[in-house]
Amino acid sequence: MTDLWFYLNRLRGFAGIRLYTQLAAMIAVGLFDGVGIYLLAPLLGLLGFFGGSSGSIPLAAGWLDALRSLNVAAALPVLLGVYVLVMAIQALLQKEQSIRGAQLQQGFIRHLRLRIYEGLMRSNWLFFVRRRRSDFHHVLTSELARVSQATYLLMQLASSLAFTVIQIAFAFWLSAKLTAFVLISGAAIALAMRRRIRRAKAVGNQTSLLSQSYYAGLTDHLGGIKEIKSNRLEAFYLDWFRSLTGRMEANFTAFSRLQAVTECLYRIAAAALIALFVYLSYEVFRVAPGQLMLIVIIFARLWPRFTAVQSNAEQIYSAIPAIRSLRQLERECEAARESADDEGTGIPRAMPVKQGIECSGVFFRYGEDEQSEYALKDINARIPAGKMTAIIGKSGAGKSTLVDILMGLLEPVRGTVLIDGVPLGEDTRNLLRHSVGYVAQDPFLFHASIRENLQAVRPDAREEELWEALRFSASDDFVRRLPEGLDTIVGDRGVRLSGGERQRLVLARAMLRRPSILVLDEATSALDNENEARIQEAIDRLKGTMTIIVIAHRLSTIRNADQVLVLERGEVVREEDQQLAK
Ligand SMILES: Nc1ncnc2c1ncn2[C@@H]1O[C@H](COP(=O)(O)OP(=O)(O)OP(=O)(O)O)[C@@H](O)[C@H]1O
């Protein structure tokens, strides 16, 4: 329930006065609807339905007498005209309320979407390292759709409740005793149905878990489709998919069954109650036939409202787990939020390195608990500014982790990183990243043109600057040969390009940023000797103008380094000054 209240409060905070006008509009629609029904009394009276018994219908008596003083031929069109007018106003109001309701709902969902996306974008790298990406997709798509539906249902529920209250008021006017009887019956049934609402929540929990597995599986399997195809694992994954979608089907059917049974119970109860009601009215309360007729009309309109309230409540309860997922993700993003780095000016500050980066007693581990193993242990090393430092070591030795620490992406668990002798803190860690150009092991290109990919890091870069960066990364020739040149769209994650071509484009992008620290994480591993040699030469020419850190396996890459750090199981086991060694 706290999750629901939290979201109601959030909705109130977002919509402000609009929420209250919306509720007022709902009440007005309900009122007009009630008046419409109430007009039926004089109408029916005019048509002679009540015989001489109109005096027993509260309020109607005065109307009827006034109308009777006119002749029927004149009164009927007046009455019908008023009826049409009232219903038309109600219809117009309802239309306006529906449009505004949809605007409110969509606005609120966009507000939630933006909050979560912004929360993710502002979260630190460790947050992403520790979580499955598919869980974010799941929350931002499937869970958000359920919350959107719940928001719509909440408004519907408010509208149903407003309608119901107004109808009850009208019904009370007509007959307090019989309305009380209907209400007590409704309350008794709602009480008996409480367990069904709890069941709806349990089914909703299951829906969240299943759709989370679905998203995780799809992301994994499609990401690894080449492995699946080349190892003939299709049947295994098909079995998994069949089984999971079977459970999803059962889950959705269970919820539909729950709702259908509830509706069926309400319908049977309605029939039984109407029968009892007519019997009691006639035999016990001796209600006049005209009034009885009206009460039946009111009852017939009131009861579906009870059913709607119950059904809405079941659906809203089934969406509570989705609301909880959203809230949980927001909380986690908040806890992992990085500090802003523009000091409120809107212009991010960079942090150039003049002397060097130093690690002093740096420890790091990925696991959250104290027992988990360190990926880096007591690292003491210095990366001189303007020089090229190579980090080498076996797979899993901690090279990428060390680079992430040096770039300010990860924070040491113990120890300090110093930039020009000044310890890197929470605020300065982000600033350092403005000075970094990074090329990853598995380079990433957006599904856009080469130009857009390059300009993503510097929107104001001129055409010559783009070509200069491409020349640097030895990619100018192949880009020129592409059918659309710079405007060629590179496929999903750049798959339409070869690994080496992607690496070269990402290197061009990194250079375009004019970084003061260039980090290459095995960035030339996919290149042929000729292209690697061209890039090595270009990088060599950069020495003295920027600090270069490379993770490398090939001797050819290390050869030009000024310093080599050798890592083994998270420790620096050797630090060689190449210049001295030469
Ligand atoms: N996201 C992660 N969660 C948990 N442990 C991790 C994570 N990333 C890396 N590790 C662990 O940290 C250690 C160092 O990994 P790291 O990726 O830094 O090694 P590496 O030297 O760069 O390896 P490679 O050359 O294979 O890329 C390894 O034992 C690895 O299992």
Automatic annotation (TrEMBL):
It is found in: Cell membrane. Residues 23-318 form the ABC transmembrane type-1 domain. The keyword Isomerase does not apply. The chain crosses the membrane at residues 20-50, 70-93, 176-193, 264-282. Keywords: ATP-binding, Cell membrane, Hydrolase, Membrane, Nucleotide-binding, Protease, Thiol protease, Transmembrane, Transmembrane helix, Transport. Residues 357-580 form the ABC transporter domain. This is ABC transporter ATP-binding protein. It comes from Cohnella zeiphila.
